[in-house]
Automatic annotation (TrEMBL):
Region span, Disordered: 42-67
Protein source organism: Candidatus Halobonum tyrrellensis G22
InterPro entries: DUF4349 (IPR025645)
Coiled-coil segments: 153-217
Transmembrane segment boundaries: 271-290
Domain DUF4349, residue spans: 71-285
Top-rank lineage group of the source organism: Archaea
Protein name: DUF4349 domain-containing protein
Signal peptide: none
Length: 297
């Protein structure tokens, strides 16, 4: 009997331990499932965070590119100068442009006159390297008296960056179309690719022309110089009394007068001769007829 009771108690203890082990085993399985479920979510969240970080980095890189880009500045100036000698000032400006590595892009000149007075005014447009702009302005203002002066600066950095990015994109598109053109087998496909390629090439040339224009204006600053001479004061002509004329000069003047009178008489005769012939001949004939009748009577 005692042995039977001991066996029963041992079985109950084993069953309880087995049940407890089963519960523990089920609990461990649930924990693994939860961990497995949470792992993809954590991975997705980590991927989303990484993607967001990459986008932010790309945006920051674009902004940093614009900030690191050297500022593209177009500098222009207009100076109006009063000068004593227009030709000398214009020659000095031409020499100044050449010495700074630039050139004269435009030059106009106008000579004014009134009575016995003349004065010149004009305009000279200088294109000088941007690095020599300040020195060139100092030399220009030293050519005369500054009446007015205007300077301006235009920042075209963003335009240059945008045009360059647009050009890179168009060139990549052109390369892709060229590859498609090489692989095209159908005539219709070839013509379609040719049209697209022609449109892209036209757009590339337009963007390149605009970009080059901006780069030239950035590389060479423009200085417009307006030059003018002051109009001289009116000076009446010198006159002298007739009795102050020297004898020899008076004699020569009288000879000139005689020559002019004789020339005038010859010219007058030449003008009057046709009229004399046209009127005199009929009158002479009438006079002869009248005299003959009078003799007959």
């Amino acid at each position: 009997m005692c042995c039977v009771l001991l066996l029963v108690l041992a079985g109950c203890s084993g069953g309880g331990d087995g049940a407890g082990g089963g519960v523990a085993q089920r609990g461990g399985s649930e924990d693994l499932a939860a961990t497995a479920t949470a792992a993809p979510e954590d991975t997705a969240a980590a991927d989303a965070t990484g993607a967001g970080g990459e986008e932010g980095t790309a945006g920051d890189a674009t902004g940093a590119q614009v900030q690191r880009q050297d500022r593209q500045l177009i500098r222009t100036a207009t100076v109006r100068l009063r000068v004593d000698d227009y030709e000398a000032a214009r020659a000095n400006l031409t020499e100044l442009a050449a010495s700074t590595g630039g050139y004269v892009s435009e030059s106009t000149e106008n000579v004014n006159g009134e009575g016995n007075r003349t004065w010149t005014e004009g305009r000279v447009v200088l294109r000088v390297p941007a690095g020599n702009y300040s020195g060139a302005m100092e030399a220009v203002t030293a050519q005369g008296e500054v009446v007015s002066r205007t300077e301006g600066t235009q920042d075209v950095t963003e335009q240059v960056v945008d045009l360059q990015a647009r050009l890179d994109s168009l060139e990549a598109e052109r390369d892709r179309l060229r590859e498609l053109y090489q692989r095209a087998n159908d005539t219709e496909e070839v013509l379609a690719v040719q049209r697209e390629l022609s449109d892209v090439q036209t757009e590339i040339e337009r963007v390149e022309a605009r970009l080059q224009s901006l780069q030239r204006r950035v590389t060479y600053s423009t200085i417009t110089v307006e030059l003018f001479e002051p109009s001289p004061d009116y000076e009446p002509p010198e006159t002298s009394a007739w009795y102050d004329t020297p004898l020899v000069e008076a004699f020569l003047s009288s000879i000139d007068g005689v020559v002019v009178l004789a020339r005038s008489a010859v010219v007058l005769t030449a003008y009057a001769l046709p009229y004399a012939i046209a009127v005199g001949v009929p009158l002479t004939l009438l006079a002869l007829l009248y005299r003959r009748r009078a003799d007959l009577v």
